[in-house]
Automatic annotation (TrEMBL):
Transmembrane segments: none annotated. This is VOC family protein. Residues 1-26, 341-363 are annotated as: Disordered. InterPro entries: Glyas_Bleomycin-R_OHBP_Dase, Glyas_Fos-R_dOase_dom, GlyoxalaseI/FosfomycinResist, VOC_core. Gene3D superfamilies: 2,3-Dihydroxybiphenyl 1,2-Dioxygenase, domain 1.
Amino acid sequence: MSDRGMSARGMSDTGMSDTGMSDKKLSAGEPIHDIAHLGSVELFTPKPEDSLWYFRDILGMETVHTTGNSVYLRGYGDYAASTLKLTAADRAGPGVISWRATSEPALERRAAEIEALGLGIGWTNGDFGRGRSYRFHDPDGHTMEVYFEEQHYEAPDHLKSSLKNLPQKYSGRGVGVRRIDHLALLAKDVEANRTFAQKVLGFQLREQVRFNKGATEIGSWMSPSPVHHQLAYVVDVKGAHGRLHHFSLWVDNREDVLRAADILSENGVFIEAGPAKHNNSQGFYLYTYEPGGNRVEIYSGSYLVFAPDWEPVTWNEEERGTGVYWGGSLPDSFIQYATPDVPGEAEESGEPVADSKSFPVFF
């Protein structure tokens, strides 16, 4: 991934204007309500058939559309026509991350702000189930877009629910994930990306991890909605750009996460960590790898944030510990592995790569 956008007009070499704004000022300023929620995530996979099996047959998502090298899926509780796009590629990693705007004027406003920073790619005619979008890079190089027009899902007869307020009946297939929840991205400069998400996209900061007496921002968890976080940025210990740590899917309760562990194990799917509980977000989790290599989290139980004057929660090294409130510890792979998988700066120079003992787990 190139350092595109890093020296764009009005940007410092960290990718954001050097405004001197503190986290508190960014959170306390007049809020921007132009982004409604995470709309969809595209995942690249070198094993498209196996990845489809994982999401459709094991996790229970529904296939709704296929075109070219891409398959579109959704959870039974997602209102949109599609929320996950699997695209065949040479290696795993994130494709386009899509955010739904609250209106057409909101879309225009965000596009103008992003364009002014020099991070814009340009307008598209839209993807399956949605209208035009404005595509851009975040300061770290992840590809994102904002759109407004959304096709609501209309279930075929065999998937119609007797509940008029449920887009699709619960099929009971596999894990039965309800909806997409969030994603965590790695970044070389967490502060620059967090500032971009707050100041330009209007996200609210929920929690963060800071080391070295608050001087080093290790991770930040943000959301444009009452959902605890729909986007997290965490430092990339390999010094790379544009990588995905994990994509998260929601189930209704903690028992569903435990049930998911049984289903995944019975089908030979590798479980990296969990089931256990995070201290950050209070979320109950299970981390697994889909066959293409992307890390996927089965998730439930995190708290919602309704306070308009929410004060971000900050954790330090001692408070954060292993990132686990209770349950088994997270393995070194949780820090080292992300997609696309790349050698780190330290590895290329022959230096040892930090493990979880010298670099506390930050999720």
